[in-house]
Amino acid sequence: MPTIVVDGPRIPSIELKRKMVEGLTDVAADVYGFDRKIIHVLIRENAPENVGSGGRLIADIHAERSET
Amino acid sequence: MPTIVVDGPRIPSIELKRKMVEGLTDVAADVYGFDRKIIHVLIRENAPENVGSGGRLIADIHAERSET
Amino acid sequence: MPTIVVDGPRIPSIELKRKMVEGLTDVAADVYGFDRKIIHVLIRENAPENVGSGGRLIADIHAERSET
Amino acid sequence: MPTIVVDGPRIPSIELKRKMVEGLTDVAADVYGFDRKIIHVLIRENAPENVGSGGRLIADIHAERSET
Amino acid sequence: MPTIVVDGPRIPSIELKRKMVEGLTDVAADVYGFDRKIIHVLIRENAPENVGSGGRLIADIHAERSET
Amino acid sequence: MPTIVVDGPRIPSIELKRKMVEGLTDVAADVYGFDRKIIHVLIRENAPENVGSGGRLIADIHAERSET
């Protein structure tokens, strides 16, 4: 019953989400020596205006980059 | 100030959410021996394409089941 | 695969932890309409100097109370 | 790489989100003695029907208040 | 700045923790298309008496197994 | 009832924890326009061998730095 929670930006396709869940599960199953069956993954998709890095919103960092 | 966070699928009605919050609060207040007033609950509703179990997306597990 | 995380103070006995896990699981299984088997619970025990309420450490609130 | 996660109600403007991220980052950088660059913040906005306090949904507490 | 949090049992060696962090980071960097540098991982190790599965403490499930 | 969770390294004194809780609470109370009373803070202290950045354990990054 290990649980892996990933917080990041939006993941644009179900194929990529599938890849995320498969990949993270494989790593954890391998390290813990557990059956994949008992590993759970939660993907959280966060809007760029709800995430800050270095004291600035990702939304603002993106806006500035696209201006230049 | 204990906080309970429940991560699960969408809960389809406010009556069920009410029941969740009441029930979880009662259990925690009882175990901690605290007044219900200081117990907080957060319900997180997750899309089936953002949750994985056993290395597979819940969305895919559901799709496969409904095919058969 | 719903997961319930409880953050609170130390729970002083395994009997109480058992009661917490049983109780929370029953509530969630009932609300979601799921088998208890797929419900997971994590108990986090926090030191009073690592929790704040109203801008004050619980450790300080306790110390003040026991002085009076 | 400290991470601060804030769970609260909806924040109605990007200016307020900016203020939240800046303020929390400054406090953490100051306490840890770290450069602001490595501090991350996640804002989670929760619907009043997904939050409980004292065993009741915030949605119900609000509804009751506006009735009186 | 994606953050991955893994909640599971104790991981008995630093080599295994290294493998966990490397593996999870690689998967996330690949799926997001981000540089590994901005991916963070937190490992949380939970005592078997603080985790429940199917309404029972892992500590109790283990105890029962070793009896038989 | 907003809740702020800070995940970072060990904070070596209660004075610093006090400062963290006061500071984060003030920022959140100000942004939400709420009374400080309903703001909660949780400090999580993580060992350097349980945190990864850029695919490497903080414990390893520190060890390498002190070698040079």
Produce a short descriptive summary.
By secondary structure, chain A is α+β, with helices and mostly antiparallel strands. Chain A has helices at residues 14-32, 58-67, and strands at residues 3-8, 40-45, 51-53, 56-57. The first copy, chain A, has one domain: 2-Layer Sandwich (Macrophage Migration Inhibitory Factor), CATH 3.30.429.
Helix count of chain A equals: 2
CATH superfamily of chain A, please?
A: Macrophage Migration Inhibitory Factor
Rough outline of chain A = elongated
- Share of helix of chain A, binned: 40-55%
The major beta sheet of chain A can be summarized as: 2 strands, parallel
Give the uncertain stretches of chain A in residue-range form.
Answer: none
Please provide the ordered H/E string of secondary-structure elements of chain A: EHEEEH
Q: Alpha-carbon distance between the termini of chain A? A: 47 Å
How many beta-strand elements of chain A? 4
Strand content of chain A: 25-35%
Q: How many structurally independent domains of chain A?
A: 1
Question: Kindly state the mean pLDDT of chain A as a whole number?
Answer: 96
CATH topology (level 3) name of chain A? Macrophage Migration Inhibitory Factor
- How many whole angstroms does the radius of gyration of chain A measure? 16 Å
CATH architecture of chain A: 2-Layer Sandwich
**For this structure, what is the CATH class of chain A?**
Alpha Beta
Multimerization state: homohexamer
How are the strands of the biggest sheet of chain A laid out side by side? 1-2
The class by helix and strand makeup of chain A works out as alpha+beta
